[in-house]
């Protein structure tokens, strides 16, 4: 009987270990998936937060605040691949469409006013599929 108890305990321990191994493998696979999908690294929330300090400039003109230019630089750094730039472009386009009083000329001039060269236009009407 004691041999059966030992064998039963051993089987239970092996089953628990299998569960731990399976969960560990799933966690590693999930981490790898997030690392190899750069296009999903940028969220519209990040883009909105980066551009929020720019709203006074984009709706009123003048000169962008230093925090706005920091946000523009941050966006450029985040958007390092074509997929990221297209995703960012779509986020910027959505954000631009939320402000009916957005000045298109101010939006288009924003990167240059901040001294940032970007391939992502800030506009309501950009075709983001052509962004490289």
Automatic annotation (TrEMBL):
State the organism named in the record.
Davidia involucrata
What is the name attached to this protein's record? Non-specific lipid-transfer protein
The UniProt keyword set, sorted, is: Lipid-binding, Membrane, Transferase, Transmembrane, Transmembrane helix, Transport
The opening ranks of the lineage are:
Eukaryota, Viridiplantae, Streptophyta, Embryophyta, Tracheophyta
Q: Which PANTHER family match?
A: NON-SPECIFIC LIPID-TRANSFER PROTEIN 2-RELATED
Question: Would I find Transferase among this entry's keywords?
Answer: yes
| Entry-linked SMART domains | AAI
PROSITE patterns documented for this protein: PLANT_LTP
| Matches recorded under InterPro entries | Bifun_inhib/LTP/seed_sf (IPR036312), Bifunc_inhib/LTP/seed_store (IPR016140), Plant_nsLTP (IPR000528)
What are the transmembrane regions? 20-36
Report the domain of life of the source organism.
Eukaryota
Stored CDD domains: nsLTP1 (cd01960)
UniProt GO molecular function: lipid binding; transferase activity
Biological role:
Plant non-specific lipid-transfer proteins transfer phospholipids as well as galactolipids across membranes. May play a role in wax or cutin deposition in the cell walls of expanding epidermal cells and certain secretory tissues.
